[in-house]
Automatic annotation (TrEMBL):
Name this polypeptide is given: UDP-glucose 4-epimerase
Native species: Hermanssonia centrifuga
Taxonomy, superkingdom: Eukaryota
UniProt-listed Enzyme Commission number(s): 5.1.3.2
GO biological process per UniProt: galactose metabolic process
Keywords annotated in UniProt: Carbohydrate metabolism, Galactose metabolism, Isomerase, NAD
Pfam families: Epimerase
Required co-factors: NAD(+)
Length: 392
């Protein structure tokens, strides 16, 4: 239980307004142990999501909430671009040396296909910005980081379910940025093992939304990923008469690709567990092969669902009569990505208990309550601007 004696720990979340991070912020605020600072340039997110998260947190406060509890629901939301070193330094300077307990680094570009077309943009945004963030963190004695990685680091994995010991061999530039960032963070932990500690979380396929329907996924333009696309089809945002299924000739039970979908609220709680595992009482690093305090965990359910099974689940949730046609394979797709989640369960206490019916129901609840997502144009931070702080 939160105690009035323990001051709030400041945690900075990058990409705070995005789909995953908004749910992570909720998970942090729910504990009333953290003061959340968000950084976002709103490239692919809407500032309204942060107002909504803060609202959920305020609504969840007990009647006898203390002043500190109330303070824990206020987000320091900075409009700021991670590639702009001065802007990021300004944010850290605002809180001073040792003023931020830890960072959850989620901001990144994430479209696999696009990353092959504009690799330099991906390396600059995902790798360059991470290096600069780590340098500024070090300057300000902020040396705990939870990193948002992806199952895509495994490429086509030799063993399913995939254990974390699997070699990393990403196929796309996007996947390679995740491998590079993990490598860089591990090297930083090796160089200064008494200062740095880091956990990398390899997400499988996040799905669903917070059950309130106040926050959810609001992709920029036409969704490329399966679930938001199915949801947009059912609400009429995309006019495609048929879903194009990318290949039915894979070595899987129904021939379509299999993925490990997990509820975004469960995924978000994994970040809280990881953050706590960076604390002084943690034993997760006891089994590290060297004295570098770095470890990676799979966050998945350990169950695979095929594309056709997902279409069927969304049909049940939405009542929409999806039609589909099978077309050729999508470049870069792998037949099966299913986590072995044993390590995260054993060492972090991570679980992803919510089932597919709940994921689809919550996705549809968000979509029907917000047929056009958060709506309105995104506020993008101009290059060279001073970061602006909004307390939400
Ligand atoms: C991909 C990336 C992942 C990235 C995520 C978010 C890989 C292996 N994974 O996940 O790293 O974080 O996107 O951008 O590159 N599908 C169709 N028709 C569609 C859309 C999707 O059949 O119109 C199929 C795909 O072939 C795939 C499944 O649905 O088998 C899920 O696709 P998607 O939602 O895009 O996620 P991933 O490709 O698994």
């Amino acid at each position: 239980m939160p105690s009035a004696q323990e001051p709030l720990k400041r945690v900075l979340v990058t990409g705070g307004a995005g789909y995953i991070a908004s749910h992570v912020i909720f998970a942090l605020q729910e504990t009333r142990r953290f003061k959340v600072i968000s950084i976002d340039n709103h490239h692919n997110s809407h500032p309204k999501s942060l107002q909504r998260v803060a609202q959920i947190a305020r609504d969840a406060l007990p009647p006898n909430a203390s002043e500190q509890d109330k303070e824990s629901t206020v987000i320091d939301a900075w409009t700021c671009d991670l590639r702009n070193r001065e802007q990021v330094r300004n944010v850290f300077e605002h809180y001073g040396k040792d003023g931020i307990w830890g960072v959850i680094h989620i901001a990144a570009y994430k479209a696999v296909g696009e990353s092959s077309e504009i690799p330099l943009t991906y390396y600059e945004n995902n790798v360059g910005a991470t290096i600069s963030l780590l340098q500024i963190m070090s300057e300000y004695d902020c040396t705990r980081i939870v990193y948002s990685s992806s199952a895509t680091v495994y490429g086509t994995p030799p063993i399913i379910p995939i254990p974390e010991t699997t070699r990393m061999k990403a196929d796309s530039p996007y996947g390679k940025t995740k491998v590079m960032d993990e490598t860089i963070i591990e090297d930083v932990c090796s160089a200064e093992p008494t200062r740095w500690s880091a956990l990398s979380l390899r997400y499988f396929n996040p799905a669903g939304a917070h059950p309130s329907g106040l926050i959810g996924e609001d992709p920029l333009g036409r969704p490329m990923n399966l679930l938001p696309l199915l949801s947009h089809m059912a609400i009429g945002l995309v006019k495609d008469s048929k879903l194009q299924v990318f290949g039915q000739d894979y070595p899987t039970p129904d021939g379509t690709c299999v993925r490990d979908y997990l509820h975004v609220v469960d995924l978000a709680k994994g970040h809280l567990l990881a953050l706590d595992a960076l604390g002084p009482d943690s034993h997760v690093f006891d089994t590290c092969p060297t004295n570098a305090r770095f470890k990676a965990y799979n966050l998945g359910k350990g169950h695979g669902m095929s594309v056709l099974e997902m279409v069927d689940a969304m049909r049940k949730a939405t009542g929409f009569d999806y039609k589909y046609e099978v077309i050729g394979r999508r470049h870069g797709d792998v037949p099966e990505l299913v986590a072995d989640p044993t390590l995260a369960r054993k060492e972090l206490g991570f679980n992803a208990p919510q089932d597919l019916v709940t994921m689809c129901r919550d996705l549809w609840n968000w979509q029907t309550k917000n047929p056009k997502g958060y709506g309105g144009p995104d506020e993008v931070v101009p290059a060279g601007a001073t970061p602006t702080l909004h307390q939400l």
